[in-house]
Amino acid sequence: MIRQRIDLQCKLAHFDRAQTGAYIARHMSYVGAEHDVFTEAAIDDVFRFSSGAAHLTNKVCTNSLIYGSQNKHRIIDDHMIKRVIEGELS
Asked: For residue 38, how many other CB atoms are within 10 A of its CB?
């Protein structure tokens, strides 16, 4: 059973919209992004989908970055977020 292998559990409080945007920006800067990759409208949709939960924010952002890369987009906008949510995460 998986729970038997978990030594430590940590529950993060959900982020608000501003914290979600800062969280995404911080992660993008960690990987070397030199400009904003996600539009404000995209971050709004990420927040609406995730309700500020870090693991869902990570999931939708990762899938959106993969989708954007496959389609040769340098900026992730709200239309791409909606496509990823509807197509892959529903």
From this structure: 25
Contact 64, 27 (CB under 8 A): no
Name the burial class of residue 41, with classes exposed (0-12), middle (13-18) and buried (19+) by CB atoms within 10 angstroms of its CB: middle
pTM above 0.70, yes or no: yes
Per the DSSP assignment, residues forming a β-bridge with 38 are 76
Tell me: pLDDT of 5 over 80.
Answer: no
Report how far apart, in Å, the C-alpha atoms of 41 and of each of 4, 16, 77 are: 41, 15, 7
Taken in order of first residue, the domains within the chain and their CATH numbers are 14-88 (1.10.8.60)
CA distances from 46 to 10, 11, 25, 73 (A): 22, 20, 13, 18
Q: Give strand pairing partners of 76.
A: 38
